[in-house]
Amino acid sequence: MSRALEGIRVVDLSHVLAAPITSMFMADLGAEVIHVEPPRGDDAREFGPFVGEAGKNRSGYFISLNRNKKSMVLDLRKEAGKKILRQLIEVSDVLLENYRPTTMRKLGFSWEEIQEINPRIIYASISGFGQYSLPGYDSRPSYDMVAQGYSGLMSITGPEGGQPCRVGSSVGDIFSGHQAAIGILAALIHREKSGKGQHYDGAMVDGLFAVLENAVVRHTVNGEIPGPLGSRHPSITPFQSFKTKDSWIIAAIGNDVLWARFCEVIGREDLTGDPRFRTNRLRTEHVKELVPIISEEISKKTTKEWAELFAGADLPFSPVNSIKDICADPHIRYRNMLVEIEQPRVGRMTIAGSPIYLSETPGEVYAPAPLLGQHTEEILRNILNYSQIEIDRLKQEGTISGEV
Amino acid sequence: MSRALEGIRVVDLSHVLAAPITSMFMADLGAEVIHVEPPRGDDAREFGPFVGEAGKNRSGYFISLNRNKKSMVLDLRKEAGKKILRQLIEVSDVLLENYRPTTMRKLGFSWEEIQEINPRIIYASISGFGQYSLPGYDSRPSYDMVAQGYSGLMSITGPEGGQPCRVGSSVGDIFSGHQAAIGILAALIHREKSGKGQHYDGAMVDGLFAVLENAVVRHTVNGEIPGPLGSRHPSITPFQSFKTKDSWIIAAIGNDVLWARFCEVIGREDLTGDPRFRTNRLRTEHVKELVPIISEEISKKTTKEWAELFAGADLPFSPVNSIKDICADPHIRYRNMLVEIEQPRVGRMTIAGSPIYLSETPGEVYAPAPLLGQHTEEILRNILNYSQIEIDRLKQEGTISGEV
Q1: Contacts of B322 (CB under 8 A, 6+ apart)
Q2: ipTM rounded to 2 decimals
Q3: Disulfide check for A354: which of A28, A339, B47, B111 has CB 3.0–4.6 Å away?
Q4: Domain of B272?
Q5: The whole model's pTM is what?
Q6: Based on the domain organization, do A314 and A375 belong to the same domain?
């Protein structure tokens, strides 16, 4: 089976999470991703959980994000390292990085300079506040947490009336990683017609701001300042978790047809006729009166009992699954969303699969994550036509390195 | 300025949020998106906040998601409506929908049938559990809340030791919307070589499972069951919000170099030498001892004072911004992440812009959201070459309609 992005080469200067998500999507879809790491390695190699023999010194975190990629170690503080990077840029379709904007400029790889090396390249940058930004913002260091706090997302996540919470996964990085993939692929499509590359300038703060959905319009339209609502949806009701006899169940009643059926299942057909609850808009206005009535009913049965009743009535519902529950879930297994890989120096391990289900060219995990600099020599030899003598000299100078 | 996806036509049967996010990205990038709505309209037209005159009867939520798109009303319960949809499919590049899998099959638009109409089309479906799924799962209704609960994301979001919380925006829908855009664009690139379309089968549950990042490996590697951690990161320390004298500030200390500088700024250089805190891995192991020490120091100054100190030391930090703060933020304004549109029947309103910053073909808001069926006649006339007599007959039969 062929892969969608076969033949596309990505020079990937990324680290940790945001841009590595972008190159993960591209590698899963068949692009050749060359992850260029500094001699000390991508910072993510130091993040837990750790696996493998010899003191469990391999990062499971790094492995899960860097499957399917190649690793090359280049010391970009050395002129010889920069020269190799320039040669890679010449023969690649995409250059990806998520350093601070000032870092790449200082290294001599601004968009102006890169265009001169290869005018057809798509240069994708992800940073906290963007390349094109207010004075000083381009040198501001950023992490997911910074974007979650700065963007406003944290202020609407958490218990109602309580302390703002971080989303349990690093969505500030991960959304901007998705958005960069969209930008790069759109730019590749455009290049077919224009023949020209371009610069993608992603900002993590913007990426999260763009997905606040109704919170933004509620403020711009009504001056509202949305706060955290626990598990409740701000404009759809009832749409939240309720405590059952033994745990929690989510009921997601998204329209009036479902509402009528829901009332029947919980034995409160009388609510359907109640003028306070007739439409979604009214139910949301009267949420404080409605939720105690429903909670009272839901507390009378177990999660399993309600699950059967809700399923029987074709209502949208879910238990609140733990990570253990979902990793053992038959749906996740059936959809191949957990895959086993044979990881060098580690052995068999299980990581999340690709959500990009394409019938002819699905995203796939087809190779493990690389050791640090595992492909340095191979890339110099096969892509850039370096001789073994040159390679040995670069190694001796410390410009390149690699585990074998 | 040209747009990246100019010349690509999308027939968009989507509703509410997941697939509308996909078509929003595509429309922002210049694709012609024809949002085909049932006579009662996309459900999102009933979701608040409401704007406009005549009883504030327009959904600001719908408007923010459907800018740049066209709207056509087709009654797909009628054979004549299906016929028009088939004709649209014949002349389009992408067909997008997020009904339950069984719905499209019942209507006669399974992937097998659509391929026969147009073998070059990319057919993208988003559903809760996927088209290819365990028996019964393909007819399961789903909403964002269901995916947040089912995927495990809710179980790791919320106060430490407390009740699981929903992420404050509908990330179950929004991630799968991003992923479908990635799948579609990759499939369009592949079609250049293969000449063939394919089916994208997105599942909201899979889409969220795929972004749980370290939570999954921590379980598969160590058998851990991660729970909610408030604002704290599970494997980077210190990386959370701390209470200042007057509010909250986030410190995101992602590596050992930053750690040394952070200790200096808070006046606790002694911590750098403490063997419990020497590396990120050690700090994470000893988080329960470390956080009280830091909290004590941070409580001594205001957020503004710490912000200046952290900025001076080039440390990653952020205040926890409210939605009001971020909507008034100079960075968001500078990056054009809030744009004003002139919306018919509403007037001027402000919505979030596009995060897809491409230097030559940026994502842009260039048109307001359509009235219900605003473009029905225009599309029949200009794209499908219907005569006015035919159009009038379809209108009379109730197959088509449209606000003008």
Answers
A1: A152, A155, A225, A227
A2: 0.95
A3: A28
A4: 239-243+248-319
A5: 0.95
A6: no
